[in-house]
Each structure stands twice: as structure tokens, then as C-alpha cells.
Amino acid sequence: MAKERENKELFQKTMLFECAWEVCNQVGGIYTVIRSKIPAIVDNWNSNNYFLLGPYFEEQAAAVFDPIEDLTDSVGYAVHTMRERGIDVHYGTWLVTGKPKAILFNVFSVFPRLGEIKYFLNENHYIQVHDDDLTNKVLAFGYCVTEFLRILTNNIEQPTNIIAHFHEWMAGMPIMDIRRENMPIKTVFTTHATMLGRYLAMNDDNFYGNLPFYNWEDEAKHFNIFPTVQLERAAAHGSHVFTTVSDVTAKECIHLLGRKPDFILPNGLNIQRFEASHEFQNLHFQYKKQINDFTRGHFFQSYSFDLDKTLYFFTSGRFEFHNKGFDLTLEALARLNYKMKVEKIDATVVFFLVTKQDYYSINPTVLHKRAMIEEIHRNTEEIERDLGDKLYDYITSNNGAFGIPDLSKMISETMELKLRRNVQSWKSGSQPTVVTHNLVNDGKDPVLNFLRGSNLLNGRDDKVKIVYHPDFINTTNPLFRMEYNQFVRGCHLGLFPSYYEPWGYTPLECMASGVPSVTSDFSGFGAYVQSNFDDCEKMGIYIVNREINYFDAAEQLANIMLRFVKLNRRDRISMRNNVEENSFAFDWSKLAEYYFQAYEEAAKR
């Protein structure tokens, strides 16, 4: 209790600035980290002393940012001073849970100074950068943040503890000048994935085995990311406290960045956003019905199968065929298809691969099928209403005489004609496509090439059906018309056996939604679960061993899926209950403590 009171006192009198490219800017997984963590920080920190720093992009910020006009405090003074110097700064409230204050910098307002910024970066820190769009924006952002902190510390009215926490290389540039100028700021730097590690893992099947033997300079130059890696290493070495998100990534940091992290900061979620109490089973049933509608439209024109004996598996995320484990997942699904045929299992697996790839348009045939199923749905609902009215009238006006009416005679000629047209146009001899869109690089797409090579092409006798959806799911999507988290709730199993995944939010999001999932021991989340929980499978989290060779890992994953397919409905419901109950172990109210430990250490150094 004494330490807790001491911590609370420290948090109350310390200004905390959390800086990230993803503040009010939804471009990647760090956005989820920052946004979901805010309520836990606000609950423990003096809200008047907690601020977020990010870039200002109007199209992203317009709907979620509310300006603050009062500039009388120290932060407001720094904002006002920067505006007087010609830098476009926006000070306001980020309209998310917790409503923290945010300072956003328009990076384009300092583009005329890029030459000067690059000169001093080379002069003071010996880093020469490429002239590309992202790098220019990052440098401009770093310059703005540095100027803001310099003005703030030079003009603050009284001695105040200041901690600045920087996420990833895109936000870490100010650390160099904070240390060089000895500003009264304690710095924390978090790498969520090393830039070089991501490139190496995509190109080396034995990345982890070779990790101790890479020469970081040679490899960074080989991939043409040398200046970026320099910026990342400078932030890691310059920070008072260096952190990363998992033990898996910590190994990268040691060998590729040259510094062992001081703390591991596992990522959590605001579980309350997903909480559905006892309703989550009903929500699963509700959203599964919507996925059933897609399945009917996509497959049932060609052939049908029992939807009560159909399981929906899915994977999602950025398109990194090897790193995200898409390759392993497809190999395991091909094996599962064979195993289910051999064992004559009376069930069907429909697998959705949801990612982002370049495409021209939605496949017109797929879109037409979806329109047809919606038309049939509208017609049957119209008949249902019409028949209901006529049956009600027949029963109540029949003076007690018993008799069952001929329902076919109660259908109007117009509705009968519509039904005949639906029946005539419904059946098709064509095989269902495996991809829902017309891809730009159809012939070179690794997913399609694997499916063609393994003949996993939605044949009538296939037990595993494939739906490759190269776009993210949301309510404006004409094929699903649902939010992504609703789609997740409607599925039975998430598949994320990543080869390279510093943390991995997708299985955690499954867990928060009460959906079992597969992860790997090479993902930060999987390694964390494996180290901190005894019976992972009972929790509904299956972990694939990626240290073994690729084909053995694929066989292991195929057997995991086969065991899941063989579970009866009661066992699957029980597992969903276990998943939902254990999800609270990953709430930020528990995991934010790791961040507080890092801040305490920074305050001491």
C-alpha cells in the first residue's frame, strides 16, 4: 500500500507526454495500443498532466478531435508560441474513451524547413536520410515535437517532473536532441517491432536461428533501410528507459538494435468495449446467421451443405504471406480437407482469409449472387407478412369451423411470379470462386497460386471451402454489411499461426469476443500466454510450435483444427465461455501496471 501511495503521488505531480504517429491517426496496430490504453492511464494519472502528441492529418482528425481554445496553461503557451513561429499546431481533446488532451502537429507546415532539419540531423547525429514521402513527414513530425518540448521546458513556471514516451522509430527522433541538449525530460522508447527484423523475417525461413549472426549494418543497407534503422537504434540507445512488447521482440532488440530492453510492456485491450455479459452466445448466433446469408449466396447456387454442421474459421491482418502465417494456414487447411474426407466427417469448414490486396472491383458474379440472395430474402419476408395477414383473417372469420387452408392459393399471382423467377434463376452449374474480388496481380498472388496448386478450389466434395476476401470488412461492404468485430463474433475459430509477430492483437480480439483462436509461440501474445497460463487449450487458445520445421508445424495445426471440428456443440459453447471469462486477464486495468513500472524507473534515472 505504501508503494501504491508513492506511485499515485508520482503520477499526480508528473507530466506525461505520449508520442506516436498513430495518435488520432488510424494506420496500424499501435493505434489500438494507444487508444485502448487511455482509460487505464487516465484512471491512474492526473488527467491535467497527461497529453498525447501526434501528427495532424485533417481527414483522420476531423471527426475525433475537439479543439481547446484556452491556451493559458504551460502547454497552451507552447502551442501559442509555435503558432507565432509559423508552425500549424492543433490543441484539443481526442474524442475517445477517457477523452485525453492531444497536441497534433501539421507536418506540412514545416516542409520548407526540411533542408535545415536534414542538415542538423547529419551534423549532430551523423544520420543521412532518404528523400521519400514518409521519411520527410516523420522528420517534420520529430522536429515539431522537439520544438514543442524545448519551448515547454524553457518556459514552464515551476520545476515539474516530465516523462516523454515515444512509440516506434516514426516518433523517436526527438530523443536524440532531448539528450543532446540535456532537456529536463525523462524519456521512454518502445519498439513494437524492429524495422530490420520485419524485413529479415520475410526473407529468411530461419530468421530466429540466424538472429545472433546478422550484421545489422550490412542487412540494413541490403534492404535499403539503413537511415531508418539508424533512427531506431538512436532512439533505443538514447532513451532513459528502453522497452518492447514481448520476450520474442526483446531478442531482436539485443541483436539488431544493440540494447537489451529494460522492461517488457505486453499489450492489452479495453475489454469492457467487447464485454457482452451473458449475451455473447446470443450475439454469436445472431452474427453467424448473417455469415450464413453470405454462405448461401456464395455456395448454394452451385451446391448446398448443412449450415447447422458448418464451422466458420478465419484469419485476418496485413498481407504478409509468410510473416502472418498465411502460408502455414493454407497448407494446414489442405491437410484438414484430406483428413476430413478420409474420416468421412459429416461437417463443413468455411475458411475466410480477410486481408488487404490491390483489386479492380468485386467479382460481378459474387456481387450478383449476393443481390439474388437478398432479393429472395425480401420476397420470402413479403410472403410471410402477406400470408400472416390472410391466415389471421381466415382463422378469426371462420366461425369456429375447423380446416387447414390451402396456403398455395393464398399467395398472390404477383408473388408467385417472383418466386418462380427466383427458382428459375437460382441454380447454377458453375463452381464457387475462391476469391471475391478481381485482383490486380491475380497470376502472381501467393494465396491463389497455393490454392490452385493444392486444388483447394471449392469443389463439391471438398470439406474445406475457401473465401479469400482481399478487403477489410465493415458495414459499407456489400458482401457482408457488418462490422469486423461482429464478423469475428459470428465465427467459430480464428487462425493466426504467425512466424513473425511482435505481439498480435487479432487472437486477443478473438478472446475478448469469446472466440477461440490459434496463435504461435513466435508471436508475442502466444509466448506470453504460454509463459503465464497453465492450460491454454482449456482457455480456447491453441499454440502452434513454430520452432519445428514448416511441414511438421502445418501437420500440428491441421490436427488442432481437426480436434476442434470433432468437438460437439456443447463443448464448443463451454470453450467460448472459458475464452470470455479469461479475457479479463488482458484488460489494461491489469497490464497498464507494466507501463507504470517503466515510468517509475524513468523518473529515477
Description:
- The protein has 605 residues and is of the alpha/beta class.
- The chain folds into two domains: 2-270 and 590-604, Rossmann fold, CATH 3.40.50.2000; 286-362 and 430-586, Glycogen Phosphorylase B (Rossmann fold).
- Helices cover 49% and strands 14% of the residues.
- The chain has 24 helices and 17 strands.
- Helix 20 (505-512) links the parallel strand 15 (493-495) and strand 16.
Describe this protein with a few key phrases.
globular; 24 helices; alpha/beta; 9-stranded mixed β-sheet; Rossmann fold; 605 residues; 6-stranded parallel β-sheet
The helix count comes to: 24
Which class of the largest domain in CATH terms? Alpha Beta
Number of domains: 2
The largest sheet has its strands arranged as 3-4-5-2-1-6-7-8-9
CATH domain topology of the largest domain: Rossmann fold
Helicity level: 40-55%
* N-to-C span: 23 Å
CATH superfamily of the largest domain: Glycogen Phosphorylase B
Largest sheet: 9 strands, mixed
Runs in which pLDDT lies below 50 for 5 or more consecutive residues are none
Number of strands: 17
Question: What does the radius of gyration come to?
Answer: 28 Å
